[in-house]
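Dear Dr. H.,

I hope your travels went smoothly. While you were away I took the liberty of generating a structure for the chain from your last submission, since the lab meeting agenda had it listed for discussion. I wanted you to have the full record in hand beforehand rather than looking at slides cold. The sequence, exactly as received, is reproduced here:
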Amino acid sequence: MFKNLGKELRDFILRGNVMDMAVGIIIGAAFGKIVDSLVKDIIMPPIGFVLGKVDFSNLYFTLYPLGEKYDSLDAASAAGAVTINYGLFINTVISFLIVACAIFAIIKIVNTIKDKACKEEEAADAAEAAATEKECPFCCTQIPINAKKCPHCTSEL
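The corresponding predicted structure, in token form, is as follows:
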């Protein structure tokens, strides 16, 4: 039962789809870091500035001890306070929306390229099919392109 397990595992790993998936996961993780930085360092500071110099990463609500105020989320965490970090949640939602828009754009572009390639392939197939026949100049029927005599009207071509 386990004799060929190593060979089967190797064959599974070396299949094209598995390798493509691994590359996609690695690129996706790197892309996620880029998007997190984009949201945290580029998008949220101007939004926070426009909304009255609010730092979204420091927006939280203290559950325990109730009513206790801290200078920052880090200070609350260091004190052992139980908090609901809605500012971090807002950052995460914005990150998700950016990733979703980027993936949508990429899929849209890939589908457009695939559609164009399919149409070109269909046109090439149609041209190839058309090139295998010609019209008899005497009876106007379609005949093989290499025909020397029309099978319909028996005219010499």
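Two observations you may find useful: Residues 1-51 form one domain. DSSP finds four helices and four strands in the chain.

With kind regards,
E. W.
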